[in-house]
Structures are given as structure tokens and as C-alpha cells.
Specification:
Length: 753
Amino acid sequence: MHRNGCVISHSANTPVSRGRADTYSLVVVSNRLPVDHEVAPDGTESWRTSPGGLVTALEPLMRESEGAWVGWPGVADRDFEPFSNDGISIVPVRLSTQDVEFYYEGFSNDTLWPLYHDVISPPSFHREWWDSYVTVNKRFAAAAAAVAAPGATVWVQDYQLQLVPRMLRDARPDLVIGFFNHIPFPPYGIYSQLPWRKQILDGLLGADLIGFQRVADAGNFSRAVRRLFGYPTRGTAIDVPDTAQHSRRVIARHFPISIDSASFEELAKRPDIQERSRQIREELGNPKTIMLGVDRLDYTKGIGHRIKAYGELLAEGSLSAEDVTLVQVASPSRERVAAYMDLRDEIELAVGRLNGDHSTIGHPAISYHHHGYPREEMVALYLSADVMLVTALRDGMNLVAKEYVAVRFDNDGVLVLSEFAGASDELKQAVLINPHDIEDVKSAILQAVNMPKRERSRRMRALRRKVFDNDVAAWSASFLETLTGGAKVAAGVPENLVAGLRDLASAPTLLVALDFDGTLAPLVDEPENARATEGVAEAVQRLLHLDGVRVAFVSGRALVSLQHVADPPDEVLLTGSHGIEVKLDTPTIELSLVAAELEQLETLARVLERIAGSVAGAWVERKPAGMVLHTRLTALGEGDAAQREARSQLSEILPTLTVREGKNVLEFSVRSRTKGDALEQLRAHTGADRVMYAGDDVTDEDAFAVLRSDDLGLKIGPGASLAGYRVQGPDEVAQVLALLADFRAAAVAARTL
Ligand code: GDG
């Protein structure tokens, strides 16, 4: 096939040329395409799939849903036509040499990268870099808009493209837009240095869902939005004003990325790779302990700190180069950015000194490699490493840590992991370190080198469970499901939910909070006929009798009605009317209103009763936190007049009331509460360490929004949701509760709480 006068061949399927008019229902946009453009010495050009985790995770989805990938092919000043590679449509975006210099090396890698990594290296701010960033982001947005089908889902990746969500939304309001930030999002004190801080936030807020690696990153982002725009945020939800009257809900939350764990394990089991791993040990002079570092040569990775700690241990005689070797792979990265050139000099000087001081013939203290290796070689290295050192000063996730764990099917090896890498949120059984504290790094290295086999194996098993339960396919599925609302929900209890329940059951104290209609009971035409499905009552009884467990029903119904249909045992905590009514270990229902609200209620009653008393046919209905003026039976015109009068009097004396207008009814409430408020109150009342919340309705989203990272949210049925898990209907909820009771009983019996 001839393009641009060159022969283009492809690694796999023959490419199919697609015209510009083709559109796709799923579009991924990232700075780099998942294919590399290669030119052989004879001038033959070809594309090679780059084996990243993101491609592996998205490939099946992209094929299934006619997906397209928009990005830069890695060569400047070249135009390429769209083509298809391994069933994925590739849409190349052109970058000029100057774009590469200003947008990519400049603004992305010398402004945003150091700023977002806690200014480990000073960021440079240049207005012409920013201009180029805007121009290139526009080009990516236009390319994505051109290939997105009506209503398509567009998923934008990473910090190079933060303006694309807003640009896309302006051009194509029909699209569902997601964004994932692979690197950290810094605290406000640092973020606010950015001269274009408002433009970037506004760019991101064009998305429906903004994903981060860690809970803390999402929190930093929401705080920046509050500080710079004052938009209301609640949990993971941000209400962004759209027009004068309306706002759009944007969700900002964590989705820790992962790897294709099974494919790493598969490689590790290959005899040739195991043989290579043995060979590596031999070539290093058969040291007792091999320590390994694998990083892009980047100042965020703490390579210098690692070398310093190791050097001191050798100098003090706590370790000897006869016994221990550190293999450091530092793959070349961003070699045209000045800070990276300086770093290379600094690291290579340190390596040279250390080797000069401590290596013996045949026993290098550090075996240093400034190359990229094939994945097979990486796996062989991981297999041969007794200790893996991940000492990042700041890292979004750090996939190397997860790859090491995935490879160790022998349940051996020790991971030393920086608490400043996102991976440390999940990989708690690693030896966690503060890499800035050289003494801490040194003692962690000694602990790892001397760790008894049993402890190594116990820790590695736990780490492996995490990495295999949450692989990259689960990551992308969970992001896209949150973004699009998961169109179809399968029957049964999914495996990841079973794992989540098992984990939750071990909390010291636990609150199980459940919506009723649609969650415990199937939805019915007549609300008074709603009844919980079979098995619910029994599971709730079992939970109530287990140590450290409280159960609550959280409903929009008035509590009297909830008690009637749910017939709950006395120990169940109840909240009704979206949290306005509560029955929390008291014999009677109480109103969760503060003194000022009760006073307002009195005033409201006085005003409305006076008005209703003067108009024949009007009457007032009292609600737990409000009053309704009914005018259905008044003479023509009098009802409207009474309503106008009520509005005008109350807007003066009680301006904060919520007013809702219906047909011949006017309702005033002293308080607008949500199920989120109800859940917070239940959490405070019970003092529970962890919470499970299950619900089916949009009003349950307010409760999901206040869940914390180690809580469990369960959405019933389809529809966009903040919940981490989903099941089809109330039958599954009964099974879920029974499983939770089983796990809890086992945890209580084993006293592992
Ligand atoms: C960014 C964030 C986040 C490295 N050298 C070679 C090689 N690698 C592979 C590793 C790993 C990947 O590159 C590096 O991923 P990390 O996660 O460790 O770090 P970043 O490159 O900084 O990635 C990071 C990530 O995005 C994903 O969201 O985790 O925090 O900074 O897969 O194995 N692979 C091969 N040869 C090498 O020489 N084949």
C-alpha cells in the first residue's frame, strides 16, 4: 500500500484504509498512538503495535464497539492517513517539530510534569509553550470530534490533553466524555503556581468523568475547583454551572490503573524466560541477593536516593558487593529536556563512584543499563530479583511494582515500595518506605534482604491477590461503566464483588446501609404492596446478630410507610424522607431538624394556616420538614391568589425555604436533605469503620458520593453510578447480604477483625 510515496507495511492484519467520513462509537485520545512508526534501513516504513497495558486493556473493547484511537504517531512533520491495525482504527494527528518542542517537551514535560510531581524539579513557565499547548489540544479535539459517532463515548488520556474535554464538549455536546490523569494531581499550594490554572481546570471540567490514580489526587482536584471557581462539590461530585439556571454534574474520583497481570505471569512461566533468569544470576557472579530497579530515567523515580542508601550500606559494611548486586535499568527518556540531561549525568556519576568504591572483579555493586529491553528480558529480570526497589519521590501509580508482583508466581521476592507511589494505596503488604528518609530506605533494604522465607511468601501472596483481582481490564471496565452507566447488567454476584465483600467483612465495625424500594424489594405499581425479596429478612437477621455490624434502611419514603412495608426488626436503624426522619436506637421517630429549622417550621405553619383560613376550600398539610398549601377546592382565581400571597409573605420572612410547585399544591420545606446526609448521620451515629451502601435510584447517588475509599458502593440495575459495584436486582442483593453474613461470621470466628 502506498501512502505519502512510501511503502507502509503492518505487523499484523493487512490495513484497511478508512475514509475520513467513518465514525466510531468509542474513541480513545492519547498523546501517543498505540503503534510506533518504523523506518527500516532500506527505507521501508511500517507500523508496530507498542505493547502497553492500555492497549491490551482496550483492544477487545475497541474491536467489539468499532473503536478508534486518535494520537500522534511519534514522528514530527508527517501526515498519515487513518488506517486499521489489528482491528483498531488509527487516526494519526500531525505534530510539527515546533509542536514537539513547545507542546510536548516544553509545556507537557517541563511545565506540567514537574509541577504535578510536587515540583521535585522546578517547572518552567513560558507563554509560547502554553500557546502551543492550546493549539495542539485543539487539533486533537478536532480530530476526535471528526471521528466520533453521534452520542459516542470519548476517553481522553493524560496531562498532555487536559483542554480536550472542554473543547470537545463545546464542539459536540452530544458526546459522553471521560478523562483519565495518569500522573498525580498536586495539592492546591503547588497547583496554584500555574499561570493557566483556571484554563486547565475548566478544560478538564468539560468531561463527565475525571479519573485519577489515588483518592488524594481526586481530592486535590476538587479542592482546586472549589478554590478557583467556587463550584459546589460533594464527595466525588462537582456541580458545574452550564447555563444561568442549570448545572452539569461532573464526577472526579480515583480509578487506580493496573496491568495485564495474567500475561505477565504467562511470560514468567515460559521455560526459556526462566532459563534466562538463571543465566542473569550467573552472569552477575551468582550473588546471594539480586536487587532490581526498573525505571524510565526520570527525576521522579528516586533513583539517586536508592543509590545513596545502597552506597551507605556498602560503606558501613552492612552489605557487601560479594553478596549483593543492584541491577538498575534506567530506560532512556525525554533526552532533549535539560533536566533529564542533568539527571543522567548525576546518576551516572553516582553509579561510577559507587562501582569504583565497592565493586570487585566479577562482582559489580551496580549493574547499570541505560537501554530499553524487550518485555521478555524485563520478566526474566523480575524473576531473578530477590528484592525490587521502587523508591519514587512521586509517582501516579508505578506499574513496575505491579509487574514484579504479577511475575512472582513462586510467591517469593520482596517489594520495597515508596508511599509516594500510587501503588502503595493498594500494595500495603510491601515494605513501605519514605524515600526522602535515607535511613528508612536503608533499614527497608536490610529488612528485605534478611526477610525469612515464610514472611516473604505471606506478603507476596497478599500482594498477588490485589494485582490479580484488579487488573487493567477491570480498571478500564470500571471507568467506562461509570462513564456510560453500564448498559446491561448480568445476573448473579460478580467475582470482584465477592472479593470486595470478603475484604469488607474484616472491618472492625461495619455499617450496612440499604435503600428499600428497588434494592431490597422489587419495584411495584402500588408502593404499599412493595415487599422485600425472599432471603433478605433472614440475611438481615444474621447480620444484626454478628459482632460489630449495624444495619440501616435508608429510604425516600416517610418512615411510617417504610415501617409498614419493610417491617424491620427493632435493631435496624431507619432514616426516611431522604434523611429528614430518623429512628436511631430510639423508640419513636425523630425529625432530624436543628432548633432553627423547627422554629422556621412553626413560622411557616402560622403563615400558611392564616392564609388557608381566609380562603374557602384551601387547607394545609403538615409534612415532617415542611408544609403544603392545597388549593384544589378553592373558587376560580382564589387558589392562585392564595399561592401568590404565601410566596410573597414567605420569601420575605423565610427566604431560605425550598419551594416546590405542583398542580394546585405549593410545598415549602425548611430543609433539603439527601441520602448522602442520612448516610453521614448514620456513620456518625454508629461510629462504623467501614460502610456498605446499596441503592438503585438517582437519589442513592448522593449516598455513593459520600462513601470513602475503603467503603463499598453497590448499584442495583443499569444507569450511570458512582458505586464501585453493580448487580442486576433485589434477588442478587439478598445473595450479597447472605455472602456478607457468611464472610463476617468467618472473620468473627477466626478473630481476624
Ligand atoms: C506513567 C505514570 C503510571 C520501563 N523500561 C522498560 C519498560 N518499561 C515499562 C515498565 C512499565 C512502564 O514502562 C513504566 O510504567 P510506570 O508506571 O512505572 O511509570 P511511567 O512511565 O512514569 O508511567 C505512572 C503510568 O503512567 C500508568 O498510568 O503508573 O505513575 O508516571 O510497564 O515495565 N518496558 C520494556 N523495556 C524497558 O526497558 N519492555
